[in-house]
Automatic annotation (TrEMBL):
HAMAP family: tRNA_methyltr_TrmB. It catalyses: guanosine(46) in tRNA + S-adenosyl-L-methionine = N(7)-methylguanosine(46) in tRNA + S-adenosyl-L-homocysteine. Pfam families: Methyltransf_4. It comes from Pyramidobacter piscolens W5455. NCBIfam families: tRNA (guanosine(46)-N7)-methyltransferase TrmB. The keyword tRNA processing applies. Catalyzes the formation of N(7)-methylguanine at position 46 (m7G46) in tRNA. Its EC number is 2.1.1.33. This is tRNA (guanine-N(7)-)-methyltransferase. InterPro entries: SAM-dependent_MTases_sf, tRNA_(Gua-N-7)_MeTrfase_Trmb, tRNA_methyltr_TrmB_bact. Gene3D superfamilies: Vaccinia Virus protein VP39.
Protein backbone atom coordinates (compact mmCIF):
# COMPACT_ATOMS: atom_id res chain seq x y z
CA UNK A 1 0.00 0.00 0.00
CA UNK A 2 1.26 3.52 -0.72
CA UNK A 3 0.14 7.14 -0.33
CA UNK A 4 -1.78 7.17 -3.60
CA UNK A 5 -4.09 4.43 -2.30
CA UNK A 6 -5.04 6.49 0.74
CA UNK A 7 -4.96 10.18 -0.22
CA UNK A 8 -7.82 11.20 -2.45
CA UNK A 9 -7.58 14.18 -4.71
CA UNK A 10 -11.10 14.65 -6.07
CA UNK A 11 -11.38 15.51 -9.76
CA UNK A 12 -12.18 19.16 -10.67
CA UNK A 13 -15.87 18.23 -10.70
CA UNK A 14 -15.47 16.93 -7.14
CA UNK A 15 -16.02 13.27 -7.95
CA UNK A 16 -14.45 10.64 -5.72
CA UNK A 17 -13.47 7.27 -7.16
CA UNK A 18 -16.36 4.83 -7.22
CA UNK A 19 -15.31 1.96 -4.97
CA UNK A 20 -16.75 -0.59 -2.57
CA UNK A 21 -20.31 0.17 -3.58
CA UNK A 22 -22.71 -0.73 -0.80
CA UNK A 23 -20.07 -0.37 1.95
CA UNK A 24 -21.13 2.00 4.76
CA UNK A 25 -19.46 5.41 4.49
CA UNK A 26 -18.16 7.13 7.63
CA UNK A 27 -16.48 10.53 7.77
CA UNK A 28 -14.27 12.09 10.43
CA UNK A 29 -13.86 15.86 10.15
CA UNK A 30 -10.65 17.35 11.60
CA UNK A 31 -8.99 14.04 12.54
CA UNK A 32 -5.83 15.68 13.98
CA UNK A 33 -3.20 13.00 14.67
CA UNK A 34 -5.57 10.29 13.37
CA UNK A 35 -5.99 8.21 16.60
CA UNK A 36 -9.78 8.04 16.33
CA UNK A 37 -9.76 7.55 12.56
CA UNK A 38 -7.34 4.62 12.72
CA UNK A 39 -9.23 2.95 15.59
CA UNK A 40 -12.53 3.47 13.78
CA UNK A 41 -11.18 1.93 10.56
CA UNK A 42 -9.92 -1.09 12.51
CA UNK A 43 -13.21 -1.48 14.35
CA UNK A 44 -15.28 -1.16 11.17
CA UNK A 45 -13.35 -3.08 8.47
CA UNK A 46 -16.50 -3.41 6.35
CA UNK A 47 -16.85 0.41 6.15
CA UNK A 48 -15.04 3.01 4.08
CA UNK A 49 -13.71 5.64 6.49
CA UNK A 50 -13.01 9.10 5.07
CA UNK A 51 -10.93 11.59 6.99
CA UNK A 52 -11.18 15.27 6.05
CA UNK A 53 -8.50 17.50 7.54
CA UNK A 54 -7.34 20.99 6.65
CA UNK A 55 -3.82 20.59 8.04
CA UNK A 56 -1.20 18.98 5.76
CA UNK A 57 0.91 18.08 8.77
CA UNK A 58 -1.95 16.13 10.38
CA UNK A 59 -2.64 14.46 7.04
CA UNK A 60 0.96 13.26 6.76
CA UNK A 61 1.00 11.92 10.33
CA UNK A 62 -2.24 9.99 9.90
CA UNK A 63 -1.17 8.79 6.45
CA UNK A 64 2.02 7.17 7.70
CA UNK A 65 0.08 5.25 10.36
CA UNK A 66 -2.56 4.14 7.88
CA UNK A 67 0.13 2.91 5.49
CA UNK A 68 2.14 1.24 8.26
CA UNK A 69 -0.96 -0.58 9.52
CA UNK A 70 -2.02 -1.40 5.94
CA UNK A 71 -5.54 -0.11 6.55
CA UNK A 72 -7.19 -0.56 3.18
CA UNK A 73 -10.48 1.10 4.19
CA UNK A 74 -9.20 4.63 4.94
CA UNK A 75 -9.31 7.53 2.49
CA UNK A 76 -7.92 10.95 3.36
CA UNK A 77 -8.93 14.29 1.89
CA UNK A 78 -7.01 17.49 2.58
CA UNK A 79 -9.00 20.74 2.68
CA UNK A 80 -11.85 22.58 4.31
CA UNK A 81 -14.50 20.05 5.36
CA UNK A 82 -17.27 22.63 4.90
CA UNK A 83 -16.54 22.60 1.18
CA UNK A 84 -15.36 19.01 0.63
CA UNK A 85 -18.16 17.22 2.49
CA UNK A 86 -20.82 19.19 0.62
CA UNK A 87 -19.24 18.90 -2.82
CA UNK A 88 -17.75 15.39 -2.75
CA UNK A 89 -20.47 13.33 -1.07
CA UNK A 90 -23.85 12.58 -2.57
CA UNK A 91 -27.18 13.03 -0.80
CA UNK A 92 -28.11 10.15 1.53
CA UNK A 93 -24.74 8.45 1.22
CA UNK A 94 -23.06 8.67 4.64
CA UNK A 95 -23.89 6.63 7.73
CA UNK A 96 -22.12 8.70 10.35
CA UNK A 97 -20.03 11.87 10.59
CA UNK A 98 -17.72 12.38 13.55
CA UNK A 99 -16.17 15.63 14.66
CA UNK A 100 -14.18 15.73 17.89
CA UNK A 101 -13.02 18.93 19.51
CA UNK A 102 -13.36 21.28 16.56
CA UNK A 103 -11.67 24.65 17.05
CA UNK A 104 -14.47 26.62 18.79
CA UNK A 105 -13.27 30.07 17.63
CA UNK A 106 -14.77 31.73 20.75
CA UNK A 107 -14.48 35.36 19.56
CA UNK A 108 -17.63 36.54 17.84
CA UNK A 109 -15.68 38.11 14.98
CA UNK A 110 -14.27 34.62 14.20
CA UNK A 111 -17.63 32.84 14.38
CA UNK A 112 -17.69 32.27 10.61
CA UNK A 113 -14.60 30.07 10.93
CA UNK A 114 -16.47 27.47 13.01
CA UNK A 115 -17.00 24.33 10.97
CA UNK A 116 -20.58 24.32 12.23
CA UNK A 117 -21.27 27.87 10.99
CA UNK A 118 -23.45 28.88 8.04
CA UNK A 119 -25.02 26.15 6.03
CA UNK A 120 -23.35 23.23 7.80
CA UNK A 121 -26.69 21.91 9.07
CA UNK A 122 -27.93 21.72 5.46
CA UNK A 123 -24.78 19.84 4.43
CA UNK A 124 -25.30 17.26 7.19
CA UNK A 125 -28.99 16.95 6.35
CA UNK A 126 -28.02 16.36 2.73
CA UNK A 127 -25.21 13.83 2.87
CA UNK A 128 -26.28 11.73 5.88
CA UNK A 129 -28.59 8.79 5.30
CA UNK A 130 -31.93 8.92 7.07
CA UNK A 131 -31.20 7.67 10.58
CA UNK A 132 -27.55 8.65 10.09
CA UNK A 133 -25.89 10.57 12.90
CA UNK A 134 -23.50 13.50 13.32
CA UNK A 135 -21.50 12.87 16.48
CA UNK A 136 -19.63 15.79 18.00
CA UNK A 137 -17.49 16.11 21.11
CA UNK A 138 -16.40 19.40 22.63
CA UNK A 139 -15.06 20.64 25.93
CA UNK A 140 -16.85 23.99 25.53
CA UNK A 141 -20.37 23.94 27.01
CA UNK A 142 -21.41 27.16 25.21
CA UNK A 143 -20.28 25.66 21.88
CA UNK A 144 -22.25 22.45 22.49
CA UNK A 145 -25.30 24.65 23.28
CA UNK A 146 -24.82 26.61 20.06
CA UNK A 147 -24.45 23.50 17.88
CA UNK A 148 -27.45 21.87 19.57
CA UNK A 149 -29.53 25.02 18.91
CA UNK A 150 -28.46 25.49 15.27
CA UNK A 151 -28.41 21.87 14.08
CA UNK A 152 -31.40 20.85 16.20
CA UNK A 153 -33.48 23.61 14.56
CA UNK A 154 -33.00 22.20 11.05
CA UNK A 155 -36.17 20.66 9.59
CA UNK A 156 -34.42 17.39 8.65
CA UNK A 157 -32.30 16.99 11.81
CA UNK A 158 -33.05 16.40 15.47
CA UNK A 159 -31.00 16.16 18.63
CA UNK A 160 -31.03 12.43 19.40
CA UNK A 161 -28.94 12.61 22.56
CA UNK A 162 -26.62 14.82 24.56
CA UNK A 163 -24.25 13.30 27.11
CA UNK A 164 -21.88 14.77 29.67
CA UNK A 165 -18.54 13.12 30.45
CA UNK A 166 -19.48 9.93 28.64
CA UNK A 167 -16.56 7.50 28.15
CA UNK A 168 -16.57 6.49 24.49
CA UNK A 169 -15.00 3.26 23.19
CA UNK A 170 -12.88 5.29 20.80
CA UNK A 171 -11.24 8.48 21.95
CA UNK A 172 -9.09 11.23 20.50
CA UNK A 173 -5.88 12.87 21.62
CA UNK A 174 -7.77 15.96 22.79
CA UNK A 175 -10.44 13.88 24.51
CA UNK A 176 -7.84 12.09 26.64
CA UNK A 177 -6.07 15.37 27.37
CA UNK A 178 -9.22 17.15 28.58
CA UNK A 179 -10.44 14.12 30.56
CA UNK A 180 -7.05 13.89 32.31
CA UNK A 181 -7.37 17.57 33.21
CA UNK A 182 -10.83 16.92 34.66
CA UNK A 183 -12.64 19.05 32.09
CA UNK A 184 -16.28 18.43 31.21
CA UNK A 185 -16.80 16.79 27.82
CA UNK A 186 -20.06 17.32 25.94
CA UNK A 187 -21.15 14.76 23.34
CA UNK A 188 -23.92 15.64 20.88
CA UNK A 189 -25.67 13.13 18.63
CA UNK A 190 -27.69 14.79 15.85
CA UNK A 191 -29.81 12.46 13.73
CA UNK A 192 -31.13 12.93 10.20
CA UNK A 193 -34.87 12.37 10.16
CA UNK A 194 -36.07 13.37 6.67
CA UNK A 195 -34.85 13.70 3.09
CA UNK A 196 -33.01 16.93 2.34
CA UNK A 197 -30.75 18.31 -0.36
CA UNK A 198 -28.58 21.40 -0.63
CA UNK A 199 -27.41 22.82 -3.97
CA UNK A 200 -23.77 22.07 -4.79
CA UNK A 201 -21.61 24.87 -6.21
CA UNK A 202 -19.34 22.71 -8.36
CA UNK A 203 -20.81 21.85 -11.72
CA UNK A 204 -19.89 21.16 -15.33
CA UNK A 205 -16.66 19.87 -16.80
CA UNK A 206 -13.28 21.44 -17.57
CA UNK A 207 -14.26 21.60 -21.26
CA UNK A 208 -17.44 23.55 -20.37
CA UNK A 209 -15.16 26.30 -19.08
CA UNK A 210 -13.30 26.85 -22.37
CA UNK A 211 -14.03 30.14 -24.13
CA UNK A 212 -13.08 30.44 -27.78
CA UNK A 213 -12.64 33.96 -29.15
CA UNK A 214 -12.60 34.66 -32.85
CA UNK A 215 -11.03 36.46 -34.55
CA UNK A 216 -7.67 35.92 -32.91
CA UNK A 217 -6.38 38.28 -30.19
CA UNK A 218 -2.80 39.58 -30.46
CA UNK A 219 -0.18 36.86 -30.34
CA UNK A 220 2.13 39.18 -28.40
CA UNK A 221 1.93 37.69 -24.91
CA UNK A 222 2.98 40.85 -23.07
CA UNK A 223 0.23 42.80 -24.79
CA UNK A 224 -2.20 40.02 -23.97
CA UNK A 225 -1.20 40.13 -20.29
CA UNK A 226 -1.64 43.92 -20.18
CA UNK A 227 -5.06 43.46 -21.75
CA UNK A 228 -6.08 41.28 -18.80
CA UNK A 229 -4.38 43.01 -15.89
CA UNK A 230 -4.04 46.60 -17.13
CA UNK A 231 -1.14 48.91 -16.37
CA UNK A 232 -0.97 47.98 -12.68
CA UNK A 233 -0.32 44.30 -13.46
CA UNK A 234 -3.31 43.08 -11.46
CA UNK A 235 -7.08 43.22 -11.78
CA UNK A 236 -10.13 42.04 -9.88
CA UNK A 237 -13.72 41.06 -10.42
CA UNK A 238 -16.75 39.91 -8.45
CA UNK A 239 -20.15 38.38 -8.98
CA UNK A 240 -22.74 39.11 -6.30
CA UNK A 241 -21.64 38.70 -2.69
CA UNK A 242 -20.15 35.23 -2.97
CA UNK A 243 -17.72 35.07 -5.90
CA UNK A 244 -14.53 37.16 -6.09
CA UNK A 245 -11.42 36.77 -8.20
CA UNK A 246 -8.15 38.57 -8.89
CA UNK A 247 -5.58 38.29 -11.68
CA UNK A 248 -2.05 38.61 -10.38
CA UNK A 249 -0.06 38.81 -13.59
CA UNK A 250 0.95 36.57 -16.46
CA UNK A 251 3.76 34.10 -17.10
CA UNK A 252 5.00 32.94 -20.44
CA UNK A 253 4.72 29.14 -20.43
CA UNK A 254 7.25 26.88 -22.13
CA UNK A 255 4.73 26.08 -24.87
CA UNK A 256 4.37 29.76 -25.81
CA UNK A 257 1.00 30.28 -24.10
CA UNK A 258 0.18 32.86 -21.42
CA UNK A 259 -0.63 31.68 -17.89
CA UNK A 260 -2.57 34.26 -15.90
CA UNK A 261 -2.16 33.69 -12.15
CA UNK A 262 -5.58 33.82 -10.57
CA UNK A 263 -6.93 33.63 -7.03
CA UNK A 264 -10.64 33.30 -6.34
CA UNK A 265 -13.08 32.73 -3.50
CA UNK A 266 -16.58 31.25 -3.42
CA UNK A 267 -18.34 32.06 -0.14
CA UNK A 268 -14.92 32.22 1.49
CA UNK A 269 -13.53 29.03 -0.11
CA UNK A 270 -10.22 30.07 -1.69
CA UNK A 271 -8.50 28.57 -4.71
CA UNK A 272 -5.41 29.47 -6.74
CA UNK A 273 -4.95 28.45 -10.34
CA UNK A 274 -3.87 29.65 -13.78
CA UNK A 275 -6.04 30.72 -16.67
CA UNK A 276 -4.34 29.62 -19.86
CA UNK A 277 -4.56 31.85 -22.93
CA UNK A 278 -3.65 30.14 -26.16
CA UNK A 279 -3.19 32.35 -29.20
CA UNK A 280 -3.80 30.46 -32.42
CA UNK A 281 -3.88 31.89 -35.93
CA UNK A 282 -7.65 31.38 -36.19
CA UNK A 283 -8.78 32.13 -32.63
CA UNK A 284 -7.79 32.73 -29.02
CA UNK A 285 -8.64 30.02 -26.53
CA UNK A 286 -9.16 30.91 -22.85
CA UNK A 287 -9.23 27.88 -20.59
CA UNK A 288 -8.14 26.35 -17.30
CA UNK A 289 -4.54 25.28 -17.02
CA UNK A 290 -4.43 21.64 -15.97
CA UNK A 291 -1.53 21.81 -13.50
CA UNK A 292 -3.25 23.36 -10.46
CA UNK A 293 -6.67 22.08 -11.52
CA UNK A 294 -9.09 23.88 -9.19
CA UNK A 295 -12.57 22.67 -8.36
CA UNK A 296 -15.04 23.99 -10.90
CA UNK A 297 -16.77 26.58 -8.73
CA UNK A 298 -18.72 29.61 -9.99
CA UNK A 299 -15.81 32.00 -9.28
CA UNK A 300 -13.46 29.88 -11.43
CA UNK A 301 -15.94 30.05 -14.31
CA UNK A 302 -16.51 33.81 -13.84
CA UNK A 303 -12.75 34.43 -13.81
CA UNK A 304 -12.24 32.60 -17.11
CA UNK A 305 -15.18 34.46 -18.66
CA UNK A 306 -13.74 37.73 -17.35
CA UNK A 307 -10.38 37.09 -19.05
CA UNK A 308 -12.19 36.34 -22.31
CA UNK A 309 -14.31 39.48 -21.96
CA UNK A 310 -11.27 41.68 -21.33
CA UNK A 311 -9.58 40.27 -24.44
CA UNK A 312 -12.70 40.72 -26.56
CA UNK A 313 -13.23 44.31 -25.40
CA UNK A 314 -9.68 45.49 -25.96
C1 LIG B 1 -8.51 20.83 18.17
S1 LIG B 1 -8.06 19.79 16.86
C2 LIG B 1 -8.84 18.24 17.25
C3 LIG B 1 -8.15 17.09 16.60
C4 LIG B 1 -8.77 15.71 16.90
N1 LIG B 1 -10.13 15.61 16.40
C5 LIG B 1 -8.74 15.41 18.36
O1 LIG B 1 -9.80 15.45 18.99
O2 LIG B 1 -7.65 15.12 18.89
C6 LIG B 1 -9.10 20.38 15.52
C7 LIG B 1 -8.71 19.81 14.18
O3 LIG B 1 -9.64 20.25 13.20
C8 LIG B 1 -8.94 20.63 12.01
N2 LIG B 1 -9.81 21.58 11.29
C9 LIG B 1 -10.10 22.85 11.63
N3 LIG B 1 -10.93 23.42 10.74
C10 LIG B 1 -11.18 22.47 9.79
C11 LIG B 1 -11.94 22.45 8.60
N4 LIG B 1 -12.64 23.52 8.22
N5 LIG B 1 -11.96 21.32 7.87
C12 LIG B 1 -11.25 20.22 8.25
N6 LIG B 1 -10.49 20.19 9.38
C13 LIG B 1 -10.46 21.29 10.14
C14 LIG B 1 -7.65 21.22 12.53
O4 LIG B 1 -6.61 21.22 11.57
C15 LIG B 1 -7.34 20.28 13.70
O5 LIG B 1 -6.58 19.16 13.29
Amino acid sequence: MNRGDVILRPTPDCRLPVEREGAPRLIEIGFGNGDFLVDLAQKRPEALVYGVEVSHMCLEKALSRVVRLKLGNVRLLCGDARFLVRECFADDSVERIYMSFPCPWPKERHARRRVTSEGFSGVLASVLKIGGVFEMATDEGWYADEVERILGAHAALKLAERRLNFRRDLTTKYERKWLDMGKDIHHLYIEKTALWSVPRMVEGSVEDMHVRIAPAAPVDLELLDRTVTGRTGSAQGRHGEDSHWAFRGGFRAADGTLLEETICTDSGYEQKFYVKIVSKPECTLVKLDGVFAPFLTPAVRFAIEDVARRIQER
